[in-house]
C-alpha cells in the first residue's frame, strides 16, 4: 500500500489544524521530518530541522498527534506565518508536503487561506486610536527568495472636519516595497495626519481614516485624548500589535529582606524591591474590551515608554465582557517589568506637573 495522507490539511493552515495527522501505509512505521524555511537568512539555504520522530503503524494506519502544539512553541517569537516542509517516509515511499502555517491556538471560523490572502492578520479591523499612539497592521506578503520583495499599493482615505465645522473627504494612493512573509503597514494617526497635511485644508482635524490594500481593508476612528498608556503584544496569530487606551495608573512598591543581628546592630540583607503597576481603563466598547482580552492573554507583552519597549508580565487582571444594555465594560490589570533592574522612567523625573496639568502651567 502506497504511503498516503488521510488527513485533509490545506496548504495554508492554522497550527490548531495540525493536532492530528493520519497516514495510510502497509509499512511497520512512518518517520516524520519537519523543516522550517526561513525567509531571511545570510548563508546556506535557511532551512532548520525542527522535529523528527518515527511512529509505529497499526492496521495500516499511523497517527501523529500534537504537531500543532510543537510548531506553536517554535513560532513563539516569530511572526505568525511561517513556511514548513513535512517529509513522511516509510522506508519505501516518501511523501513531501509544504505548508504555510499560521500560529493560532484557537479554531477560527475564517479559513487560514482567506485570512492570509484577503485580510490583515488581526481580529480587529475597526479600531479606536488615539493621537500620539502607535499602530500597525500585519499582513501576509507571500513567500519568495531571500532578499526579494513584493510591491504593495494602499488606498488611504480620510474624513476630516474643517475649521468652520464642515466635513470633507480625501483619498490618495501610496505604494511601496514589502519583504516576504509577514509585513507591517504603519497605521498610527500621527503618520496619517503627516501624510495628508499637504493636501487637506490647514487646521482641519482628521476624524477617521481607512486603508484598503486589494481586498484587505481596515478603518480607524480618531480620539483626541492624549494621556494614554501604550502596550505591545503578539495577537492570536502571533503578529505584533500595539494597543493604547487612557488608564488610571497606580504604582505599588514592595520590599522584602532578611535581617541579621551583629552585636547590638541590625542589618538587612537579601533586599529585593518589587514595583508593580495597576491599570484601570475607562468604559470601553465591547470590541475594545475583547482586544484587551487578547493582549492580557498573549504570550508576549511589553510596555512602550518614550519609544522604547520593555517586556512585562501580566500579574493579575479582571476582565468581564457584557452585552447587557447600559452595562459598560472595563478592564483592570496589574503588571510588572520582567527585569528586576526596573528602568527609571524619564517622565517621572524631568518635570513637576503630570501631563494633564501641563497646559495650566505653561
Task: Write up what this structure looks like.
With 362 residues, this protein is mainly beta. 9% of the residues lie in helices and 49% in strands. The chain is built from 4 helices and 22 strands. The strands form 5 sheets. A 7-stranded antiparallel sheet has the order 17-16-20-21-22-19-18. Strands 2-8-7-4-5 form a 5-stranded mixed sheet. A 5-stranded mixed sheet has the order 9-15-14-11-12. β11 and β12 (167-179) form a beta hairpin. The longest helix is centred in the last third of the chain and has 11 residues, at 286-296. It is globular, with a radius of gyration of 26 Å. The model has no long low-confidence stretch (mean pLDDT 90).
List keywords for this structure.
about 350 residues, mainly beta, five-stranded mixed β-sheet, about 50% strand, globular
Amino acid at each position: 500500500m502506497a504511503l498516503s495522507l488521510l488527513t485533509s490539511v490545506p496548504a495554508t493552515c492554522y497550527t490548531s489544524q495540525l493536532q492530528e495527522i493520519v497516514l495510510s501505509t502497509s509499512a511497520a512505521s512512518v518517520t516524520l521530518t519537519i523543516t522550517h524555511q526561513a525567509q531571511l537568512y545570510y548563508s546556506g539555504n535557511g532551512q532548520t530541522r525542527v522535529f523528527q520522530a518515527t511512529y509505529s503503524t497499526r492496521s495500516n494506519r499511523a497517527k501523529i498527534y500534537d504537531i500543532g502544539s510543537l510548531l506553536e512553541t517554535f513560532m513563539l517569537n516569530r511572526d505568525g506565518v511561517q513556511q514548513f516542509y513535512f517529509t513522511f517516509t516509510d522506508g519505501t515511499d516518501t511523501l513531501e508536503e509544504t505548508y504555510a502555517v499560521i500560529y493560532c491556538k484557537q479554531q477560527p471560523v475564517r479559513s487560514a487561506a482567506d485570512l492570509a490572502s484577503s485580510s490583515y492578520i488581526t481580529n480587529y479591523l475597526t479600531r479606536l486610536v488615539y493621537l500620539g499612539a502607535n499602530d500597525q497592521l500585519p499582513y501576509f506578503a507571500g513567500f519568495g527568495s531571500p532578499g526579494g520583495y513584493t510591491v504593495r499599493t494602499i488606498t488611504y482615505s480620510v474624513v476630516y472636519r474643517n475649521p468652520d465645522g464642515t466635513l470633507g473627504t480625501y483619498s490618495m494612493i501610496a505604494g511601496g516595497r514589502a519583504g516576504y512573509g509577514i509585513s507591517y503597514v504603519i497605521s498610527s494617526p500621527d503618520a496619517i495626519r503627516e501624510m495628508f497635511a499637504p493636501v487637506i485644508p490647514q487646521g482641519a482635524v482628521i476624524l477617521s481614516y481607512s486603508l484598503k490594500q486589494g481586498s484587505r481593508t481596515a478603518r480607524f476612528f480618531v480620539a483626541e485624548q492624549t494621556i494614554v498608556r501604550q502596550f505591545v503584544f503578539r495577537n492570536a496569530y502571533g503578529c505584533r500589535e500595539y494597543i493604547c487606551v487612557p488608564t488610571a495608573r497606580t504604582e505599588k512598591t514592595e520590599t522584602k529582606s532578611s535581617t541579621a543581628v551583629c552585636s547590638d546592630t541590625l542589618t538587612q540583607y537579601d533586599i529585593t524591591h518589587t514595583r508593580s503597576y495597576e491599570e484601570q481603563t475607562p468604559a470601553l466598547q465591547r470590541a475594545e474590551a475583547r482586544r484587551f482580552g487578547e493582549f492580557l492573554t498573549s504570550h508576549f507583552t511589553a510596555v512602550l515608554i518614550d519609544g522604547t519597549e520593555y517586556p512585562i508580565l501580566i500579574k493579575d487582571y479582571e476582565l468581564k465582557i457584557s452585552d447587557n444594555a447600559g452595562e459598560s465594560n472595563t478592564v483592570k490589570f496589574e503588571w510588572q517589568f520582567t527585569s528586576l533592574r526596573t528602568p527609571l522612567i524619564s517622565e517621572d523625573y524631568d518635570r513637576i506637573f503630570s501631563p494633564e496639568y501641563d497646559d495650566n502651567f505653561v
